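Design review, sub-item: ligand-bound model
Attendees: FS, YL, KQ
YL presented the inputs for the coenzyme A complex:
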Amino acid sequence: MSRYEAVYGDWQRDPEAYWRQAAQSIHWTRPFDRVFAPEIGPFGVWFQGGELNTCFNCLDRHVIAGAGERPALIWDSPMTGQIKTFTYSALLRRTAKLAGALARLGVGKGDRVVIYMPMVPEAAIAMLACARLGAIHSMVFGGFAAPELASRIADAKPKLVIAASCGLEPGRVVAYKPIVDAAFELSPHKPHACLIFQREAAPASMVAGRDHDFIEAEEAATPHDPVPVAATDPLYILYTSGTTGRPKGIVRDNGGHAVALATSIPLIYDTHPGDVMWTASDVGWVVGHTYIVYAPLLAGVTTVMYEGKPVGTPDAGAFWRVTQAHQVKTLFTAPTALRAIKQQDPEGKLIGQYDLSRLQALYLAGERCDPPTAIWIEALLNKPVIDNWWQTETGWPISARFRGLGLTPFKPGSGGRACPGYEVQALDGEGVVMKQGEIGSLAIKLPMPPGCAPTLWENEQGYKNAYLLDYPGWYRTGDSGAVDSDGDIWVMGRTDDIINVAGHRLSTGAMEEVLAGHPDVAECAVIARIDPVKGESPLGLVVLKSGVNRPDATITAELVALVREKIGPVAAFKEAVIVPRLPKTRSGKILRATMKKLANGEDFVIPPTIEDSSVLDQIKVSLGV
Ligand code: COA
Ligand code: AMP
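KQ shared the predicted structure:
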């Protein structure tokens, strides 16, 4: 019997009492004056007047309580053949020293630090060291190219960049340092120093006077004490794709974040101090921030950090090997990883080779989990499969099933029920709540709960425009879907031009900007094609300027290379097709949704506003569908 209704009801009846109680799980250096202050910021702020240090809550607190010898972080890297365990005391020692090194380089409270690192423990140490100083970190995923790194440096204006010399991808070493150097050239803002974590696979050459060795600086430093910050001060900025080429700087505060994350670990994951949680994501994404680094450590849990892939490192049994080796209780990944495993091991033979008796449940997020994949893995593991729907903006799940409360029924394809803190409804175009089961625009009733982004970095109006203006009193998630009669939420897709490639959120607008920058391109559209493993993959449709007579194949190869150079390999942009024209409405709007259906072989109605429907036939021929 699930206690979900009772707990959700407690929150609904008195949200402030619910969050005041939840805030007791955090150590405050100054108690907050008000649980919620509605008059500040776009929709209000949580725990106003309170002061805390997030790093203290992640590390020192557990050491002081006598849990210093408990493993805090286990690094498992099939890419290097290494496994390393850091106890809470060891992680604290290294973090406090690195914080001392950062302080010596002039980093203090409120300063920004951009971190460009792969899945190495030093990435988590760098994040925590910033948090210790009250500095604001901004992680950039390693699969982004120099111009993307530069745009984040330009927007966040960091004092310092922390980077690794390289990342390791199957079959290739990705030298990060040249990307950092190029980003410094491109960005109008020049950070004054760079801390480089040298890795054996590709040590970096250093720029004299600007670059410092991470380990040498850490070893030479004096440990730094945690600096109390306001609950409402930013902990980090994480850039994510919006509908334009310019990424949005999602701001996370300290207080609400700590309370929400610490609450989520027992509630959703039924995970407790000493348990082992493994989130197979990347620290460059929000899932990595939340469930590789901050939430497990806030809760005194052991976190596993994995530098490898679901397949190919060395095989499709990698997830089960790691789960067995580290006695993982709580496993979290993206559906795309499961589809990759399923493709190589459809009968789950490798699953049977490992002892997964400690594993209690499998959590999924990053994209909708298609029912066949959910059913397949649930049957093979014989453990609950729990979809979590959330986004960079929210920082923790909007909906889930709640192991800590007794599970609600498994409905493959559904994202579960709203977490206490969120009221979710599907709205029609006028902002009216739709009937149960009807698909509309998914929205969250304001105020957003603790942990959700209070604003965008230095762009409060941008926050209002993006999320609050369409439906007064609601936050627009940008997802479409329905809420059924049990209260289960079904997320069906985006209402904007964002696509989801292998659990990575990407902007087709950003790719279109790159394609449009090619000298031969007159106009273009990027749409999502259904991909059996990655969910979606981008497809560029390009109209050439008149008079261009270079071979199509040469131009399309240049376009693929250009997106990789400007956005990065993560865009997974592999296909551009030259078409005679793009279908448009009479007012000149490109009909992307219609082309998407056409490209994916789905039924579609020819929009009555189309300027010339014969263009669709030409596109069919160009795509061979
Ligand atoms: N640094 C540099 N390059 C990176 C990178 C990183 N951190 N991560 C990915 N890339 C590169 C890859 O090497 C690949 O390059 P390629 O075009 O030369 O092959 C490209 O970016 C695309 O990578 P990816 O989307 O990961 O595709 P893949 O084919 O290498 O792997 C999966 C497919 C499904 C195995 C992989 O996408 C995966 O594990 N996905 C899980 C996603 C996830 O955890 N998302 C987080 C949300 S919860
Ligand atoms: P990101 O901000 O990168 O985490 O991406 C957030 C977007 O990914 C959401 O707005 C959804 O479109 C999609 N998404 C994430 N998790 C889920 C899920 N469990 N079900 C459906 N869509 C999801």
